[in-house]
Amino acid sequence: MADSLHTVFCAECTNNFVWKDAGVFYTHRMLGTKGKITRLLACTEEQRRVYPQKSMDLGPTFVHPNYANNPHNHESSGSYNKPASVMHWVREAKIDETYVLFIDADMLLRAPIDPLRLGASRGMVVSEHVGYLDQGINNHLVENFVPHEGMAKLARAAGWYHIFHLEDLKQIAPRWLHYCEAMRSNPQRYWDMNGSKAQWHPLARRAVGTKNYIPTGDAYVQFGEAPWISEMYGYIFAAAEQGIDTKLLNGLVEYTDYTSAARPPQGPTIIHYGLHCHVDSYHFTKYDYQDFDLGSCPLLFFRAPARPKPSQALCAETINTLNDALCDFYHRSCPGAEQLPCAPHEADTSQPQCIDERDDCAREMEKLGVQQGGCPSGLLGSCRQACTGCCGDTNPKCLGWALGGECHRNTAFMNTACKLSCHQCEGDPARAAMQAGGAAAGAAAAQTVGGAAVDQGVLQRDPTAVAGAVAGAVAGAGADTTSAGAEAAAALAIPARLRHKGKLHLESDRLEQGFKAGVVAGALASSRAAPIANGEAGVVAGVAAGVAAAALATPEEAAAVERETPLGRWERNHPTEVQLGSELALVLLIGLAALACILVSRRPGFLASQQQRRGKQERVARKREVAV
Question: Taking CA 278 as the corner, what is the angle to CA 365 and CA 422, rounded to the nearest 5 degrees?
Answer without folding.
Answer: 60
